[in-house]
Design a protein that fits this description.
heterotrimer; A mainly alpha; B alpha/beta; C alpha/beta; A: mainly alpha; Cytochrome-c3 Hydrogenase, chain B; 3-stranded antiparallel beta sheet; 18 helices; 8 strands; globular; B: alpha/beta; 4-stranded parallel beta sheet; 4 strands; 39% helix
């Protein structure tokens, strides 16, 4: 718990000994725009206060002025390392609010893209963790893998980073015919990178000395702080939303939840590596089970056929009166995609933890309130606990392991 | 153009020109960028600095996070109210000659986000040499922008807009607050107007007119076409 | 272990009586509406007796511009929303406490969960709800000396002009 700042009389005798240092928002060790105000006694951190808000954009306010399909574009820019997870998270929340179902092909495609996006996020997290501790080459290797993933994302969604792929009720468009081949090609070579990272870092004396025991959180502390994701699983709690509350088609896929008991930086690194291997397993299963396969000869739909929510195909619009009316209503201002009145809180497992969307709808095309529950926000709140009493280099290692993404933290 | 400058200042001469060209060659082929990365564009900038689109080929290998040791600031990502004083301070700390690239739509004009905290374009407050559109721009665009800066240096220009250092307001400025009472009449000094919306309801109905109206006429035309028995 | 919701509601009713205003359900999600004065005891009961160990989110909804049909669900202007999750039962619950506009105060739940520390700071920053007993209630996302609470419904999207009030640099004429 953060204590009140001590009165000046109490810290004055220490003032001559402690150094107030500002790891400002523009700093190589801070991932994104984070600010740390630390008080140092030599190299040991006596007090640490993080300051956030240097990337606050007003997503939640903007959500009240954009309709449900427009907000997807904005949701990309939150966790910009894995934008597809944000898109899919918001789409799952919207579909729960609207009460529409995504057809199976769409669900499997979404799961494959979500897991690929998770791979992208974890791989860069491991890479940046290595880079912060001095192993610069690991970052370059992981960026090569990210470039290969960008090629796949671009083929399916049209963009490398800001994908905006999902719509309420489905996805923007079907995957290209060579999609399974591309993904299998990528997965054939990806485990080699994981092995290389393990060889480089896992039994590396320097990495182990800098990471083991650093930033340890107990199970009770982690639960009290509302920590979720790999951080919580590294503390020994096997909580994963994909297993606890399966959404899309995760219920039909077989995978494990890696956990470790220690709760320190090394444990988080190992959990992320293990999760990447589990993601590969999920993607392979989903590719095998993908209805319609790569080419989709039977023309299975990827989006809901409920035309109150998804645009009907153009030939139906030209020939069928009802489809014309649906098209008209979906496109005209003042109408659009209209949900029932009510509110829903829906969460998905983003790479950082539980990404939740709390949407309050007043029955119009624009949401009344969109609240994004950011996993990095609650994870980062544990940082003073992890850093106080340790040395500043431990703070850097702990910060790297949190995988705080400023876009999501500040929204 | 460099000849004009030499003529005006009266410093004609072959050797001075050649020396200046040599200096410019050195400067443009060893730019040390300062990545002022905030959001998604920062990830694309990191991708540009990585192995596939290698920015080090162009001399920009040494990425210095210290403004005192860099000469090219790449503002990549959205800049919000709390970050703007930091940006101005960092730009101030850079020694001259310095250039600035505004990467992405958010840094250039505010991008997708027209909200209460987003600065609608950093070029209102710091001089920008090259703008890169895109959300985020591809790494090739960033390389193109770097090459444009290199050509600019070759031509001998130091900055787009020289700013008056004797009375320059680029000192550290904290956020200037507006009280609710004064909100009726904002004193705007930036070049892009932003009116505080008084009526939230009209803002809600404020959909863009152009493309949707065209969609309406398209539907009307198809209706009539259907009636006439296409 | 599934949570026995009807018995939980019955025991809540007998403990807290009319502090529990209503209980609703939409799309399988349960919402409890309580009076703001009772938020600490109700949440303590939920954490200890009903094993809702995790507070996943603290947020707020401003009901100023709701349509009349939904307006009657909100007895006061602000609704502070707590999203609870039980690891043992794998159940979620939402608790809404209604806070009036004047005085805009409610007890802080930081004694129960550490997660509330930053969550409540954000609600204070965005909505102006003061949490009594919070160890360090100050702004978290906006600048420290900012006035105004952005997520309130009467605050404009484009702001009041702070974003344009930095001073422009003086251009020098071309030589």
């Amino acid at each position: 718990m953060e204590t009140k700042p001590e009165s000046i009389e109490k810290i004055a005798p220490k003032a001559a000994q402690t150094l107030a240092l500002n790891l400002g928002p523009q700093h190589p060790a801070t991932h994104g725009t984070l600010r740390l105000k630390v008080e140092l006694d030599g190299e040991t951190i006596v007090r640490c206060e993080p300051e956030i808000g240097f990337l606050h954009t007003g997503f939640e306010k903007l959500g009240e002025y954009r309709n449900y399909n427009q907000f997807v574009v904005i949701s990309d820019r939150m966790n910009y390392l894995s934008p597809l997870n944000n898109n899919i998270g918001f789409a799952v929340a919207c579909e729960e609010l609207f009460g529409v179902q995504v057809p199976p092909r769409g669900q499997y495609l979404r799961v494959i893209m979500a897991e690929l996006s998770r791979l992208a996020d974890h791989v860069i997290s491991v890479g940046l963790q290595g880079m912060d501790l001095g192993a610069f080459s690991v970052m370059l290797w992981t960026f090569i893998e990210r470039e290969k993933l960008y090629d796949i994302f671009e083929a399916v969604t049209g963009a490398r980073l800001t994908t905006s792929w999902t719509r309420v009720g489905g996805v923007f468009r079907d995957a290209p015919p060579d999609f399974p081949a591309m993904v299998r090609n990528f997965l054939a070579k990806f485990p080699a990178l994981l092995d290389e990272c393990e060889r480089m870092l896992s039994r590396n004396r320097i990495f182990m000395d800098r990471c083991i025991g650093v930033g340890a959180l107990t199970k009770e502390e982690a639960i009290s702080y509302g920590v979720t994701g790999p951080m919580l699983r590294a503390c020994g709690v096997p909580y994963d939303i994909r297993k606890a509350r399966p959404y899309l088609c995760y219920g039909q896929l077989d995978f494990e939840i890696p956990t470790r008991p220690e709760g320190d930086v090394y444990a988080r690194y190992l959990v992320r590596l293990a999760e990447m291997r589990q993601s590969i397993r999920i993607i392979t299963q989903a590719l095998d089970k993908l209805p319609g396969g790569g080419e989709n000869k039977e023309n299975l739909p990827v989006s809901s056929l409920d035309h109150k929510v998804m645009l009907p195909p153009k030939d139906m619009v030209y020939n069928d009166m009802e489809s014309l009316i649906h098209h008209f209503k979906l496109v005209m201002p003042g109408h659009g995609v209209i949900p029932p009145k009510g509110e829903v809180y829906s969460c998905t497992e983003a790479p950082n933890g539980e990404l939740g969307f709390y949407i309050v709808s007043d029955g119009t095309g624009l949401p009344y309130r969109v609240r994004v529950r950011p996993p990095s926000f609650y994870n980062y709140a544990t940082f003073p606990k992890q850093a106080t009493g340790r040395m500043i280099s431990d703070a850097v290692a702990a910060l790297a392991s949190l995988n705080v993404i400023a876009g999501e933290l500040d929204r | 153009m460099s000849q004009n400058i030499n003529q005006k200042t009266g410093e004609g001469g072959y050797i001075t020109t050649k020396l200046q060209e040599l200096i410019n060659w050195g400067r443009r082929n060893s730019l040390w960028p300062l990545p002022f990365g905030t959001a998604c564009c920062a990830i694309e900038m990191m991708a540009t600095l990585s192995s596939r689109y290698d920015l080090a080929r162009f001399g920009a290998e040494v990425i210095r996070f210290s403004p005192r040791q860099s000469d090219l600031m790449i503002v990549s990502g959205r800049v919000c109210l709390k970050m703007m004083p930091v940006l101005i301070e960092v730009y101030n700390q850079m020694p001259e000659p310095k250039w600035c690239i505004s990467m992405g739509a958010c840094a250039s004009t505010g991008g997708v986000f027209d909200t209460y905290t987003m600065i609608q374009g950093v070029d209102q407050y710091i001089p920008v040499d090259v703008y890169i559109p895109g959300c985020p721009p591809r790494p090739e665009s960033l390389i193109d922008a770097l090459m444009l800066i290199q050509e600019k240096i070759k031509r001998g220009e130091k900055q787009t807009k020289l700013y008056d250092r004797t009375r320059h307001p680029l000192d550290f400025q904290p956020v200037a607050l507006v009280s609710d009472a004064a909100a009726g009449l904002p004193q705007l000094t930036g070049s892009r107007q932003s009116l505080p919306e008084k009526d939230v309801e009209t803002q809600k109905q404020n959909f863009p007119a152009g493309p949707l109206e065209r969609a309406v006429t398209h539907v009307e035309r198809t209706l009539t076409r259907g009636k006439n028995g296409t | 272990m599934a949570l026995d919701l009807p018995s939980l509601l019955a025991s809540l009713k007998e403990h807290f009586g009319d502090d529990l205003l209503a209980q609703t359900e939409f799309r399988g999600q349960h919402v409890l509406r309580i009076r703001s004065t009772a938020n600490l005891p109700v949440l303590r009961y939920l954490r200890d007796e009903a094993q809702f160990e995790m507070l996943t989110d603290v947020t707020c909804v401003d009901s100023l511009r709701l349509p009349p049909g939904m307006q009657k669900e909100y007895p006061e202007r602000f609704a502070v929303v707590y999203q609870l999750y039980s690891l043992t039962h794998n159940e979620r619950l939402r608790v809404k406490a209604f806070v009036p506009e004047e005085p805009c105060e409610i007890d802080s739940v930081t004694p129960l969960w550490e997660a509330a520390n930053w969550g409540e700071r954000e609600v204070f920053d965005m909505f102006g709800v003061v949490f009594k007993g919070h160890p360090d209630l100050k702004r978290i996302l906006m600048p420290d000396n900012y006035t105004g609470h952005p997520l309130r419904k009467d605050y404009p999207l484009k702001g009041r002009g702070e974003r344009d009030r930095f001073q422009k640099y003086t251009e020098m004429p071309e030589r």
